[in-house]
Amino acid sequence: MARLTLDNVTKNFADFEAVKNVSIDVADGEFLAVLGPSGCGKTTLLRLVAGFEKVTSGEIRIGDDVVSGKGGNIAPENRRVGIVFQNYALWPHMTVAENIGYSLKVAKLDKAVARQKVEEALALVNLQGLGDRRPANLSGGQRQRVALARCLVAAPSLVLFDEPLANLDVHLRASMEDEFSAFHKRTGTTIVYITHDQAEAMALADRIAVMDRGRLAQLATPHELYHEPANEMVASFISQGILLPADVLSAEQAGHCKVRVLGQELLVRCRAGEVPRTGAKICCRSADLDVSPDGPGFDGLVKRVVYQGGGARIEFAPSAGPDLTLHFEQPDPVLLQSGSQARLRIKSGWLIPAGVAQG
Amino acid sequence: MSTPIKESRGQETALTAAVAAVIVLLSLLPMLRLIKEIIAPGGTLSSVAIETGLASPSTWIATWHTLVVGIGGTILAVVSGTLVAVLITLTDIRARGALVLCYVLPLMIAPQVTALAWLQLFGPASPFLKLFGAAPPLGTKNPLYSTSGIILLLGVQYGPLVFLLVRAGLRKLPRELVEAARAGGAGWFTVLVTIVLPLMTPSIMAAAALAFVSCVGNFGIPAFLGIPANYLVLPTLIYQRLAGGGPAVLGEAAFLSVLIGVIAMAGILAQELMSRRRDYRISSTSLAADPYELGRWRPWVQAGMWLLIVLVLILPLFGLVLTSLVPGYGIALNAKTVTLDNYRFVLFEHAAASRAFFNSFWLSIAAAFFAVIVAVPIGYLIAWGKQRWVRLLNLSVELPYALPGVVLAIAALLMFLRPIPLTGIQLYNTVWIILYAYLARFLVLALRPTIAGYHQIDRALEEAAQVAGAGLFTRMRTIIFPLVAPAAIAGGLLIFMTALSELTVSALLWSSGSETIGVVMFSFEQGGDSNYAAAMSVITVAVTFTLMLVTNLLAPYLPSGVLPWRD
Lengths: 359, 567
Description:
The complex is a heterodimer. Chain A has helices at residues 42-50, 96-106, 111-124, 140-152, 170-187, 198-204, 222-227, 232-237; strands at residues 4-13, 16-26, 31-35, 57-62, 65-69, 72-73, 81-84, 158-162, 191-195, 207-212, 215-220, 242-248, 256-261, 264-269, 277-284, 289-291, 298-307, 311-318, 326-331, 341-346, 350-351. By secondary structure, chain A is α+β, with helices and mostly antiparallel strands. Chain A has two domains: 4-227, P-loop containing nucleotide triphosphate hydrolases (Rossmann fold); 232-351, CATH 2.40.50.140. In chain A, the strands form four sheets. A six-stranded mixed β-sheet of chain A has the order 7-8-9-3-10-11, with helices on both faces. Chain B has helices at 10-39, 48-55, 57-90, 96-108, 111-122, 127-131, 147-172, 175-183, 188-199, 201-217, 220-225, 234-245, 250-276, 298-325, 341-349, 351-384, 388-402, 405-416, 431-456, 460-467, 472-500, 504-509, 517-526, 530-552. Classes of the chains: A alpha+beta, B mainly alpha. Chain A binds chain B through residues 50, 52, 61, 64-67, 69, 71-83, 85-87, 89-93, 102-103, 106-107, 150-151, 154, 156, and chain B through 1-9, 458, 460-461, 463-471, 474, 478-479, 482-483.
């Protein structure tokens, strides 16, 4: 077990910057998810940590050892990192036991000891008695567990997961999520888990690193990520947050400040030290919106009503900003109709910190 | 706090260096040596070699003949190969697998065997024609000893080559493109002419270029059919010069072989230019189009296809077998005359022939074995490597095979005529020079399937072994080799089959004691002993067909397209 430190890591491919100045500190035993849309650089990040790619600048440390940096790169085979690959990457020409015992064989471990360790690893993932099977004769879930056992058996200092559930069907996903979670509790391994699935990341991780176009957009707990996104990208990416232009009217007081959004004045949550400014953005969730025929709020046009069973998803364009689209769910009975006028009220929201410009 | 970092890339560097050394030795050195002989014979820059070559009228006659049979053979091969590919791929013809197998088989038979088989079929001594009493009187000229005979056989030999490439192209044709045209009101023939064939232009062009290179470089067919009629093409001219003048005329031979290389390259360049003129790229991938229903034409088309198979495959082989069973030239085959004496003679009695079987077998096995061992690491660097220059090396592996065999043979002669510097080892006049040429020429036959094999393997399988702590050599041995082995071994078997009855290279490099099957077969035929030549041919064809059956066992583990005769 060891901590993992990425210090200002940058990776360029020819003229394309895949990873830019990413710094992450993963504590010993922590479960970190790296989340982002495809092409955000998360897989490159994993390959940098594993040693398949060399850093352009910056440094990666596992425990106290610099594994990638100015001084050179330690080859993947010498990093003591375990990887669970997206397609399992089980060697088809070997049995399950041979797959699991491969790293022990490479390390020239005594055969009896190696056999013992393989048995233990099989037991740990509940595959006792399947050691003689070929990977081709296993179900998807079983293969995944063989892959887990294979990376476990070498007692790696760090385990990397590369979108391990992307190829599984929905039912299997849920049960494998439980399995990963239990695996983490049981072994206490430091885990870096790459995924593009927010629900998966939220369910599993202690902290989530959201990546955007090669940069680290935010590194926070799932709860903080949802409620206090650090920038517009995270706000709109996580659970499809709605971004609205706002003017900050009062300075922060007890974690809240007063803003004006689409003509409506309301209190939103914010970071400490916010001061009045214009051109700000707030993030609200569809649960923060409410239909209020009278009282404070703003008028607009119902653009679309998509019935989804038990309720409908409403798309709404406020008159004060016809280019904006607000969406929210209305449970049955759905009274709004597309093309009709309605009045909405924002109940709450989060003021996006001014921060540094993106780019 | 940080521990010292060591660059643990030593194994990779060692592998790259070894691969580079092999490629330089097998591909770059012979080509450079050949060029040096042309522009700087004897070590000083001079145009003497070129001027002498250009001044000789026989050069121009042979060049003209080479172009005539090259272009004629290419046209015949392209027309027949494309037609068969369209009929087999796009229509609902029956027994497709069997048709593909039978049509592609001539490709697996050495050109001089094809030539011999056809000669035996139509000659005045033909046991086949004698069965019906239809043979022309003895002494009549065989109609195949002619320009059109050479063109016909080149077309028969390389039609399957065109067929394979065009068929591969047709199978990638997305059904939507055909269906969109049919929905637009086009009939099947209109679709074929306006959509299918235009989109196949790159495939057909590539096939034509390949057929052209094969035709101008072919030695076996013009040697068997042209030399008796004194119709010389460049490869046979080189052979005759060397046979008559020995090493003294090497300079002239080098010039002629470069001339063949230039003609072959011109064909490839022409193809490049032609295919760049329009955009033929097919972007989507999808299922193949539904086969066109031939309806009441189907029995006729099928009969036509099988008639073609009978003509190009079955009859010639049948004629070959008949010739191998009669005791001598011009004797009719019947229950009294049938004999296995020819087989006994070539296998056990004739010293050079039995030596040739031994030589060819071990040369082919050695070449195949070496190629498999080398193809795995070279393929690794080409398919998965990051260095760009390795891809350039790929081109240089292709070169000795892309160029006609005569070119490589002359280059090998030039390289090894004198003992190897520093070591004093003499390869010239030994069997080792043939082995060297085989290794250089056929390596690519194992490399191509191996690279295809690599592209089918998930790279993560290697990376998983890497994070498990395995170094490059360990990964090669325990993970990579077992995974690409079927493809590499299939390539090795292709090499074995090709090298077994090879003639072009060994005809120029053989010496007494290092005869190959092809060389002895050729000298039997030149001496009028067609029966012995036929017996040797039947044996090699039988070995080749048996090996094809064995190779089929590997088929489930191979990328598609590795075994040309498998549908």
